[in-house]
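Shipment paperwork, digital attachment
Item: protein structure file
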Amino acid sequence: MARAHLSRRSLLAAGSAAAVAIGAASASPSAAAAKPTDDTVGTPAEALRRLQAGNRRFTSGHGRHPHQGLDDLHRLAAGQHPFAVTVGCADSRVAPEVLFDQGLGDLFDNRVAGNIVDDLLLGSIEFAVEEFGSLLIVVLGHERCGAITATIDAIHSGGTAPGHIGTIVDSLRPVVEPVLSQPGDPVENAVRANIAAQVRALSARSTIIAEKVHQGALRVVGARYDLDNGVVSLLA
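Attachment content:
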């Protein structure tokens, strides 16, 4: 079925106009110069290997901190081409560009407490996949997640979380509650269950994502970040 193409220009028109007004005196780089010239990737497998290599650099203390200079900022002003999309937690310790040793224009980050894929987040992810041709989606959970812990506390106490935090708890409850009877650490079990649930939700709820995965143009993976050593591990 034909699907109307959503233009980046139409969605970001207001922001573009403001940028022109503020920076009218600056020369605009050409669109052809917007893509990075090094570490380019052409397949989902290459995209995943690039992230894994970056995490190894980060954990070994040999980060390159690529694409983070003023020249990169100017180059990317003409357009972005992120090779991967991350669906991560808003936790201040879980910054994808740092963990994967990437830079400006490399990753299309989507972060919310509990790394929950709701309709707004799904639309953001679909936009990146459609508009920029990103090759990989990484659902990035982490140990000792506060949103997961708050959900477990609410289930055990029978209470409710204050304010809009309750929305997060209500979203996580169907994922967390079934694993509370399993042996082992309940928070860790729930973190892993939530990563797997959000991975499944991406293809189950999005025709755009499902089609590209079927075509081999996109891969969706789940990963867990260890706060103690910085290692990001893929979940089977």
